[in-house]
Amino acid sequence: MSCAGEAVPRSESSAIVRRLGLSWPMLLGAAAFVLALAGGAVRFDPDAYWQIATGRWILAHGYVPTHDLYSFTLPGAPWIVQEWGAELLMNVVYGLGGWQGLGLLCAALFGLTIGYLARFLLARMEPLHALLLTVLAACMMFSYIIVRPYEIVWPLTALWVGGLIESRERRGAPPWWLLGVMLIWANLHGSFILGLGVATVIAVEAIVDANGNRMDAGRKWGAFIAAAFGCAMLNPQGYRLLLFPFHLLGLHVLSELTEWQQPSFQGLPVFGLWLLSLLALAFSGRVRLPLLRSMTLLALIYMALQHVRNVSLLGFIAPLLIASPLADQWKKMPARRRNAEALDRGFRALARPGKIAALCATLVIAGALGFAVVAVRKSDPPGKFTPRAALDVLLADRPDARIFNDYNFGGYLIFRGVPVFVDGRADMYGDRFLEPYFAALRLSARGNIGALLKKYRINAILMSPQWPVVRLLDRMPHWKRVYADKVAVVYLRSGAPS
User: Fold this and answer.
1) How confident is the model at residue 66 (pLDDT cuts 50, 70, 90)?
2) Can you state the angle between helices 270-284 and 127-142, rounded to 10 degrees?
3) pLDDT at residue 1 greater than cutoff 50
4) Which position among 69, 302, 352, 470 has the lowest Cβ density within 10 Å, counted as fewest Cβ atoms?
5) What is the CB neighbour count within 10 angstroms for residue 284?
């Protein structure tokens, strides 16, 4: 295939494409949006319930809470609401379009991220290579499109990292408008700390590579990094928000939660293929990354191997980091090994920026398809997180019950306005509270279900039937099973706790 700067002979097909004004980024972004909805990739988890409820509370009261609002076990406990902006957005979208509206939002943000990634890569690489990397990134992200704040900030993450790398490559200072990205990001999700880390690494790389002009580069990049940290602290929590990610990652109980577990390589999924491809590329010795950028890539790989939720971040950040080195290596290869003019013309015709009319038409068509999909496909949170019938039975008998609830049911209880024993805010409850709780559910030696029920004066239990503790509850005196289905079982206390 031809080098980026070579002239490409005009062909009839490429002329038609240019007249239509289509481009790869808009086509890939639209396809990603539609496929995410049609393929059922947009998923919900139990935290969406309490996040919408928190956004509703913020909108009603006009400020961000600093203490627990929902539990009867830790009433008034300090609570860092670090996702308040995303929760407010989720509540507004839910009020306008319900769960279908939230599904459309997250699918659109996924498509926007893919479109930006394609445009970034096309500016540096051969079109075919850029498309392959973009599709691979989309595949790595596809399984993690969840209606949660961490997915909402994907476009901001890509824009931040891409903007910094672009500034680094043109040997200039980062544009100040990127600070607005950091300001918004810090008020949407705690992953902004990753953005600050990447910015620091790229700044050091730019200063070291400046040679005789390091003082000037240090002054420009140093001012930007300082301003970025300042923007990150412009939030309701102030400097405490900078410490929050480290507090969360320090919890031992994260291993109990699905999204924080290590990825599985059974069946060799896309992540496994990605790692094998990267190892093959590294062992070939043909592509060399700057030292600090290599360390950043290794850190992202380590994060993905530690927690499955980080696989998506690796999927679209890694191509941003390696695009230029890969393109430079390709240009150094003999011309006969990269000469495919006929194929190149077709791909390059769509590599140019699209026209406004074509973009509007693409958005209208993709939007119509998206609305059609959500109209026929149910997109509510799964029933395993929504014990609607069980809770109705429980509240009909004990409207003021103190409920010992399943961890995954906490969000739904909050959404219904019911005080909870526990919910998905692991950072607030901490190891000291959650470890005995999960030990009791598993009937492990460190757990004592009877002590927990007595300590918190529990008179009702709402639990998933999958936990081992359910077998014990069926035999405990003074507790009676009053309802059961495949989602939940309900127990009510009929006498003194035992």
Assistant:
1) very high
2) 140
3) no
4) 302
5) 9
Residue 479: in which H helix or E strand, if any? strand 479-484
DSSP H or E run through 463: strand 460-463
> What residues contact 180, with CB distance under 8 A and at least 6 apart?
231
Phi, psi at residue 183, to the nearest 5°?
A: -60, -45
- 150-164 in b/e form (b: 16+ CB < 10 A) is bbbbbbbbbbbbbbb
d(CA 303, CA 326): 23
Average pLDDT of 379-400?
Answer: 91
Please identify which residue in the block is written with the tokens 């918004």: 184
Q: Which residues pair with 72 in a beta bridge?
A: none
Tell me whether strands 479-484 and 489-493 are parallel, antiparallel or unpaired.
antiparallel
Query: Which candidate, 134, 141, 136, places its Cα nearest to that of 107?
Result: 141
Output the six-digit token pair for 306.
Answer: 């530690």
pLDDT of residue 335: 58
- Pairing state between β 403-405 and 460-463: parallel
d(CA 348, CA 332): 20
Residues facing 460 on adjacent strands: 403, 492
Helix spans in 350-478 (H): 356-376, 388-397, 410-415, 426-442, 449-455, 469-473
CB 314 within 8 A of CB 278: no
- Please name which of 460, 459, 456 lies closest in space to residue 483, comparing C-alpha atoms: 460
Burial track 45-84 (b if 16+ CB lie within 10 A, e otherwise) = bbbbbbbbbbbbbbeeeeebbeebbbbebbeeeebbbbbb
Of 234-238, 269-273, 336-340, minimum mean pLDDT range: 336-340
User: Which of helix, strand or coil describes residue 423?
Assistant: coil
pLDDT at 18: 58
Output b/e per residue, 375-395; b: 16+ Cβ within 10 A. eeeebebeeebbbeebbebbb
The amino acid present at 202, given as its one-letter code, is I
**CA 450/CA 473 separation, integer angstroms:** 10
Residue 245 neighbours by CB distance under 10 Å: 17
pLDDT of residue 334: 65
Give the span between the Cα atoms of 404 and 496, in whole angstroms: 16
- Give the residue carrying structure tokens 């008034």: 76
Contact 208, 201 (CB under 8 A): no
Distance set, CA 457 to CA 70, 126, 357, 453 (Å): 17, 66, 64, 6
